[in-house]
Design a protein that fits this description.
This protein is mainly α and 476 residues long. It has three domains: 91 residues, Fumarase C, Chain B, domain 1, CATH 1.10.275.10; 237 residues, Up-down Bundle (Fumarase C, Chain A, domain 2), CATH 1.20.200; 78 residues, Fumarase/aspartase (C-terminal domain) (Ribonucleotide Reductase Protein R1, domain 1). It is 59% helix and 5% strand. It contains 21 helices and six strands. The strands form three sheets. It has a two-stranded antiparallel sheet. The protein has a two-stranded parallel ribbon with strand order 3-4. Strand 1 and strand 2 form a beta hairpin. Helix 12 packs antiparallel against helix 13 and helix 17 packs antiparallel against helix 18. The longest helix has 38 residues. The N and C termini lie far apart (63 Å). This is Adenylosuccinate lyase. It holds the Pfam family ASL_C. GO terms for molecular function: N6-(1,2-dicarboxyethyl)AMP AMP-lyase (fumarate-forming) activity. It comes from Cellulomonas composti.
Amino acid sequence: MTDRARLADVTPPIALGPLDGRYRAAVAPLVDHLSEAALNRERVHVEVEWLIHLTTNAVVPGAPTLSAAEQAYLRDVVATFGADEVAELAEIERVTVHDVKAVEYFLKRRLEAAPGVLGETVLPAVSELVHFACTSEDVNNLSYALMVRGAVNDVWLPAATALVDDVAAMAREHADQPMLALTHGQPATPTTLGKELAVQAHRLRRQLARVSSDEYLGKLNGATGTYGAHVVAVPGADWPAVSRAFVEHLGLTWNPLTTQIESHDWQAELYADVARFNRVLHNLATDVWTYISRGVFIQIPVAGATGSSTMPHKVNPIRFENAEANLELSCALLDTLAATLVTSRLQRDLTDSTTQRNIGPAFGHSMLAIDNVRRGLRALSVDAPLLARELDENWEVLGEPVQSAMRAASVAGVTGMENPYERLKELTRGRRLTADDMRGFIAGLGLPADVAARLEELTPASYTGLAATLVGYLDD
């Protein structure tokens, strides 16, 4: 083994995990929000906005008011934060051995450099207002809230919504396509393919509504949540009001009561909702896989693709299997995040620090699954003749409407309608009936003519109730 090249030394570096390697294209948009570089950019953003907030609102006596040009200069530090800045910040952190302190020093460098860009400016003089009265967690909790909100609203929700729209479109397309239902894997009351897809689309939409309404909380109140340093430094300020205004300026919900850390309960709530969406999507993936296995869905072959290394006829449902596995990985991470982040010993421990660095992979595996399901659905066609054959081979499923009609007739005073369930059970249980078998039984019941005619016209394919109409509820 010693004569092998060291892959760890290859340039550019080889990804350890599949999300940054094999599956990079499907999850790349999350890098702008949930990567380490994105975390540092949001930290710079929070520090810049805090500095502007303190000066614009005259919170600290004697602090100058920044001009529009000076504010624009500071915000441009965030807007232009890219590869060079990532490298510079990493260099500073190698000295500080503290990520948030490195951000503070990084921003102070920009203040010192401001005269070279703006000419005469007060920015170097406000250097000590950078990170003023803050603990690292004041910056971190706000940064993570902004990161996760951006990832959800700008990346995950649009992808998930597009998937659900795809499923809903398929439901409408096949609203009238009758199919044999299987309960416990056995033939049951027929339905339509569109109605079954609509059920899943409706479930997924409910979870999207929950995710869309979730709150993103933030706090800025010092080392143990008491505003201790704030009050000593500037006793005349209404610090809870200043904090609330700042947090809300960032578009977040202010949390008034915390320890050193924001309690992360909102994260647990959000991740539970995303995990629930994942689990419903997992159910859709396994159902579609089963429909493919039964032949209900035919997979459209991709030119040049190989389904098996040895069996050339195979077109495997790999998109849905890949989705299942990634949804399980995502849920495992989301469940761990939700369980871990709500607990912190006394006023602070660091279990949340390393845990939150795995938010990206949690959403990444979900995004990968969403991408796979969408691609898989686009490669399906429906075998309508197979569905018709299945229905025609299972006339015994009409035992339910026949015995129900007998019950109604009995209530209406028709004689000879005794024990309808038991009579249909004797006729159908464990047996395959033909159309003639069922119609002969109906003819011998003595039902009113209109009821008998209605039942004699009924077929397994027409016994779908309001299934096609129910698909319309997707548009409500």
